[in-house]
């Protein structure tokens, strides 16, 4: 597995080749093996391909366009809207999009009590582990992935389209890479590890 960790890249250009159902299910199965706080397994995965994927991308585009005008959700991040618009292009190209829901949480745009916030953090960590399993399994199968968080700019539109009140954690794009990005720089080990 260390080789998959070394080889994994965030892919932003995809070939049009479709991915078979068995491969998708293998990727999602690996997600279900992730550790989760109190074994809550707070995840649900919704796979979008073909026409349904096109509809999801269109909803994302419309939501970003609305946020561009209103700044209703992310006014401090208005500078990041061009990046979110590029994400739409990536989503269009990728043959498969997997929406990842946190089944224990609701919208991240409302205040919650401290105790519930801690549970939300633990659930988010659990889902992060599940997504890491997904993208490493995809890498092992020769696929590229992109972990997409720009869904925040179109949050309401996306959850309405998905027909859920569960928290949308993000979307994972999956497909055969049409690029080979170089390894990105990492912080020096001495800057991030401290022994006491």
TrEMBL record:
User: Nitroreductase domain spans which residues?
Assistant: 5-175
Write down the Pfam families for this protein, in alphabetical order: Nitroreductase
Q: What is the lineage of its organism?
A: Bacteria, Bacillati, Bacillota, Clostridia, Lachnospirales
Q: Identify a single GO molecular function assigned to this protein.
A: oxidoreductase activity
Gene3D superfamilies in UniProt: NADH Oxidase
Q: Which domain of life is it from?
A: Bacteria
Q: What is this protein called?
A: Nitroreductase
Q: Which InterPro entries match?
A: NAD(P)H_nitroreductase (IPR052530), Nitroreductase (IPR029479), Nitroreductase-like (IPR000415)
């Amino acid at each position: 597995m260390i080789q998959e960790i070394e080889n994994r890249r965030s892919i932003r250009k995809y070939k049009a080749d479709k991915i078979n159902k068995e491969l998708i299910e293998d990727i999602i199965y690996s997600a279900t093996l992730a550790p989760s706080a109190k074994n809550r397994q707070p995840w649900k995965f919704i796979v979008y391909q073909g026409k349904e994927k096109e509809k999801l991308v269109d909803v994302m585009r419309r939501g970003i366009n609305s946020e561009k005008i209103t700044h209703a959700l992310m006014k401090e991040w208005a500078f990041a809207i061009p990046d979110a618009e590029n994400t739409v292009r990536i989503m269009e190209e990728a043959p498969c999009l997997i929406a990842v829901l946190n089944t224990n949480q609701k919208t991240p745009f409302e205040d919650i009590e401290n105790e519930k916030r801690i549970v939300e953090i633990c659930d988010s960590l659990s889902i992060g582990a599940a997504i890491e399993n997904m993208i490493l399994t995809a890498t092992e199968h020769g696929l590229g992935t992109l972990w997409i968080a720009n869904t925040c700019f179109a949050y309401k539109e996306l959850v309405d389209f998905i027909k859920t009140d569960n928290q949308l954690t993000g979307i994972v794009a999956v497909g055969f890479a049409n690029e080979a990005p170089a390894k990105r720089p990492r912080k020096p080990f001495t800057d991030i590890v401290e022994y006491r």
